[in-house]
Amino acid sequence: MILNKQVGLFLNLVHNRFKQYVTVIFEEHGFNITPEQFLVMDTLWDEGVLTQQQIADYLLKDKNSVVKLVDGLEDRKLVRRVSNPKDRRQNLIEVTEYAIEIKDKVTTAAMEAVDKIINGITKEDMLTFIKVLSKMAENMNNDIDLLDLAAKYPTNKK
């Protein structure tokens, strides 16, 4: 029972500390962006113009969370909403010129932060960690396959 409590507690603590740490790194580099907003930006940089629902699907988030993230990114002049000419009920989210200008620097800051966080952890341990997280996600929801996501975002991609 104690081990079960530790898993929940430690996952929560590491998740929150991870977000805080990456936020500080972004601030130190002069970027006013949260880790969650970075994930949206990274998706848009990789995939191009998307609807809010498509972003939600990519990030496994609910649409309302994505709306709030996009609101924040729009306030920061990183994205803009454009009416979808094929379906006026939908907004398309596109990156701004400013977002394109800072892409490499923000991505480098994010990767440096993660590199520091995983410093001293072997590749084998990281792969085991991903497999364990994947099994935990599968136990909670069969629709989520982290190993499929890992294949979509390969580790040798720069």
| Total count of strands | 3
Low-confidence stretches: 154-158
Biggest sheet record: 3 strands, antiparallel
Q: Roughly how much helix do the residues carry, as a percent range?
A: 55-70%
**Biggest sheet: strands side by side, in what order?**
1-3-2
Strand content: 5-15%
Question: What are the secondary-structure elements, in order, as H or E?
Answer: HHEHHEEHHH
Q: Which CATH first-tier class of the largest domain would you pick?
A: Mainly Alpha
CATH superfamily of the largest domain: Winged helix-like DNA-binding domain superfamily/Winged helix DNA-binding domain
From the helix content, strand content and strand pairing, which structural class follows? mainly alpha
- Global morphology: globular
Number of helices in the DSSP assignment:
7
Q: How many domain units? A: 3
Query: How far apart, in Å, are the first and last alpha carbons?
Result: 41 Å
Q: Which CATH architecture of the largest domain?
A: Orthogonal Bundle
- What number is the mean pLDDT? 90
Cα-based radius of gyration, to the nearest Å? 17 Å
Task: Classify the fold: give the CATH topology of the largest domain.
Answer: Arc Repressor Mutant, subunit A
Folded structure, characterized:
The protein is mainly alpha-helical and 158 residues long. It has 3 domains: 1-31; 35-97, Arc Repressor Mutant, subunit A (Orthogonal Bundle); 118-158. The protein has 7 helices and 3 strands. It has helices at 2-28, 35-47, 52-59, 63-75, 97-117, 123-140, 146-152; strands at 50-51, 79-84, 87-95. A 3-stranded antiparallel sheet has the order 1-3-2. A hairpin with a 2-residue loop joins β2 and β3. α1 (2-28) crosses α5 (97-117) and α2 crosses α4 (63-75). It starts with a helix and ends in a 6-residue tail after the last helix. Mean pLDDT is 90; it is low at 154-158.
